[in-house]
Every structure is written in C-alpha cells, then in structure tokens.
Amino acid sequence: MASLEIIDRLDGLAENYSAILCDVWGVIHNGVRAFEPAVEALQRARQAGKAVVLITNAPRPFGPVIEQLRSLGVPDDAYDAVVTSGDVTRSLIEAGPRKIFHLGPDRDMTLYDGLDVEVVEEFEAAGVVCTGLFDDRTETPDDYTDLLQRLRARDLPFICANPDIVVERGDTMIYCAGALGRAYSQLGGRTQIAGKPYHPIYEATLAKASEVLGRPVGVKDALAIGDGLMTDVKGAAGMGIDLLFVTDGIHASEYGESGRPDPERLAHYMASHGFAPVAATVRLR
C-alpha cells in the first residue's frame, strides 16, 4: 500500500484551490491557545486570494465562536467567515417542537436567540436539543444513562448540535454532544444532526465561500482541512471535497507518536475506513 504524502506547508497545495474550508478545534486552537503557525498559514492563503471559511461543529452561532477565537489569540484577518454546527442546527430547531429541553452548558443558550421556542424542564419538553454535557470537565456519557433512557421512553426527538464525540482541551480529552447523540441513537432514539459530517454544513460553507469571492465555489474548488476522521474526513469525502488531514489531533496514537506519524500506518488507517485524503500534515503551517 502506498504511503500517504505528508507535507510540511499548506502553501503549495493551496495553489490548486480557490477556497479553504478549515476546521477550528484541534487545527487552529486547542481550546486553551491558538496555534500561531496555523493562523499564519490561513493569513497567507487569504493574502493569495483564497476564501478562508472556518467550518466548526461548535454548537453556538458564529458570533460567540468569533469572540472565542479572539480570546484565544486568533485574529480576524485569519479568515473571511465562520460557519458553525449551531448555525445550521437552528433550522432543525425551527422545524421541531416549540417546547424543548436544553441538554448542555448555559454558555450555549445563544443557540436559541431569535427562535420561537421555549426552553423548559425535562418533564415539560416535547423535544431535546443537546449541545454537550452539563459539565464536560467532570462528567462522561455514563453519567447520562438514566436521563437518556427517560427521554427515550417518551420517544422525544433529539437534536444534536455538535456531532463531535471528543475534542482535546489543552492536554485533556473531553466529551462532546456527539457522544450523547450516539448513545441516544443506540437506544433507538430519533436523532437529528446537521453539522459535520452531514451535508447541510458543507453546503452552507460553500455558499459562504461563494459570497466571499463573488463567484460560485463548487466542491472541486475547495480544500477542506481537519483532524477528525468521522467528522472532517468523512464529511469532506461524502461531499467530494479534497481534504488535508492534520495528523497531530485526536487520532495521533493510531498511526505513530504525536508529531511523528508513520506514513504507511497512516495510509492503512485511512484506507481501512475507506478514506483517501489528498495529503496529510502534522500541524497546519
């Protein structure tokens, strides 16, 4: 099996595309600090005339995500626009029940701004919107077994605003809404998801890139960048978008050590899941 080419810099590869669709958490920052080389790479892409749209499974609208990016040291000139899972999930919420139970931290309540819904207690709810665990610093999905079983017993529809299973916050792995959405689905519950790897978030991102450039941007005009196999890689593959895989993310131990991926093991790992990125890089730079 041929090894997967591991490149050192984005510049040469980016020349082949008019838009860069870049993941955020794990590629641009780790929830604690920005990765300066990644920021510089995106700034250079914009300077070369590319549209840079950040595509993230954050369960909040783009405004609060931009505020978080600034607080972590990501400047506004590193990207043209941000499209979040929260943005595309709002259409699912609008089409769902009016009385919803919010499963997640209070910081995600901006998801409902301007929507005609009422956030109520569990026993009153006609539907569930999950943005994560109530306290992802101390809890795991096992803490939600009883709650999910109660929700399933009432057959409540379950909207998952962040399909990610886990992310790295600094050096710690934390669970995301996707872990609870997966558990609910395994109970036979009705689960709706619009973020990566599903089409709606990519369609919205391509539309935003088209708006930035003032001309249509199709799947062959865009390069996606990400570190998540079942979100970034699967999503790009499903849309027919080329992907640059960042190896030093949540899957690093699957094909070597952090910072030292084995090209052949990496290629085998991707092929075993049916994926073929156009290239890989240890860290975006």
UniProtKB/TrEMBL annotation:
Keywords: Hydrolase. Pfam families: Hydrolase_6, Hydrolase_like. Transmembrane segments: none annotated. The keyword Metal-binding does not apply. One of its GO terms (molecular function) is hydrolase activity. InterPro entries: HAD-like_sf, HAD-SF_hydro_IIA, HAD-SF_hydro_IIA_hyp3, HAD_sf. SUPFAM superfamilies: HAD-like. PANTHER family: 4-NITROPHENYLPHOSPHATASE-RELATED (PTHR19288), OS08G0542600 PROTEIN (PTHR19288:SF90). This is TIGR01459 family HAD-type hydrolase. It comes from Chelativorans composti. The lineage of its organism: Bacteria, Pseudomonadati, Pseudomonadota, Alphaproteobacteria, Hyphomicrobiales.
